[in-house]
Amino acid sequence: MHGMGIVFEHTRKSFPDGTVAVADLNLEVKPGELLALVGPSGCGKSTTLRMVNRLVEPTSGVISVGGTDVLSQDAVQLRRGIGYVIQNVGLFPHRTVAQNVATVPGLLGWDSQRTGERVDELLSLVGLAPATYGSRYPHELSGGERQRVGVARALATEPPVLLMDEPFGAVDPQGRRRLQKEFAQIQRDLGTTVMMVTHDIREAALLADRIAVFSGGAVVEQIGTPQQVTEAPVNAFVADFVADFAA
């Protein structure tokens, strides 16, 4: 199952208190690419991401996934087709690792044999031996191991689209680089379309096909390859943001 594109057309999100998180966003994530959203805190990155699976409802404009308007679909069905990984994972504490990874296959009615095989395959893929880890509970894992389970859970049904919000933020630097490399390999192998929010420009440069640099209100200051953004920033805002990459 290869990735589907995500398109934002004049998408806006304003909140009742008058805050405009996303002013007027036009952005395309191409099928199979990993697009990283970077920018200062509070610039609308997470809101943008969460409008794709309708955890945040857009105020106006259109967001389509694979050519279909997300607002025309049942939100629950929509979310089952989109993987979602957040910083602190949100694993179910009273379910084992294997049961956590089996969550969406279970909702989709997969039989136990198919589910079991998929769980084992994914745990191996993210570097956790199924025989060792499958029966453990989240509290028995390190932060890095929990994050791996979160990635495995999100990929369980090979979703064509994966949304990631600071996915490796809680992992120690050494484990983080290892996890990033493994994830890059998985993403290439599966051809999943990934939209990832990160505050870490190095992570964006390592993983992304393209980087979008946001300023307040989700204004796209620059979008391009990691090389374009880091070596040829279009303005002072971008230059300032990517400065710590060179440091």
TrEMBL record:
The record places domain ABC transporter at 6-242
Question: SUPFAM superfamilies under this entry?
Answer: P-loop containing nucleoside triphosphate hydrolases
Signal sequence span per UniProt? none
- The enzyme's main class, written as a single word, is translocase
What EC designation does it have? Answer: 7.6.2.9
Family (UniProt): Belongs to the ABC transporter superfamily.
The protein's name is: ABC-type quaternary amine transporter
Organism placement in taxonomy: Bacteria, Bacillati, Actinomycetota, Actinomycetes, Micrococcales
